[in-house]
Request: fold
Amino acid sequence: MRVHVADHPLIAHKLTYLRDRRTDTPTFRRLADELVTLLAYEATRDVRVAPFDIETPVGPTTGIHLANPKPLVVPILRAGLGMLDGMMRMLPTAEVGFLGLVRDEVTLEASTYANRLPERLDGRQVYVLDPMLATGGTLAMAVRYLVDRGADDITAITLLSAPEGIERLQAELRDVVAPVSVVTGAIDERLDEHGYIVPGLGDAGDRLYGVV
Ligand code: URA
Reply:
């Protein structure tokens, strides 16, 4: 599994305001949106393209455009939705699937409660959106789900990650043959006893959408 930390000063700047408890929900949403466009730039470095013939006003040339089948973007409900618009701005022709995974607050294990994905994903590049890679249980389950449907290249984009989560992902996905990458804004210190990333930013879903 490839892990890429996008340690750009603009990303670190925006992450600082995102982490700050004084940042209100509208600003938090805007920052998450801006951050994902910056992370998407790194995450799509290997997006598949095909040659495309065009004519400029001066003459013919061959450029590229996104290859078929188009990439699939999968936000993990609910917090991953806060990253969807930013990602789609970068990949407007991608398709979108939804996966609802919930974490048991006691066992910290993830289970599926919703899924709206194509039955088969053979030959598809998939971009999974989840702001927090904490224990790694949710992402490991999501990646396994996508691989079982035939996805052959998966990139998870997270705003923050915990070392424990990256370790678990690496261990749980050891047998996955398809390339799996994680592109993240930062790897924080650790998880606390409740599975929150430290220093982190708190509960990403609550900060994006309020407490429900
Ligand atoms: N999910 C969150 O929203 N925040 C964390 O710190 C960990 C998991």
Q: What stands out?
A: Residues 79, 132, 134, 195-197, 200, 203-205 surround uracil (CB under 6 Å).
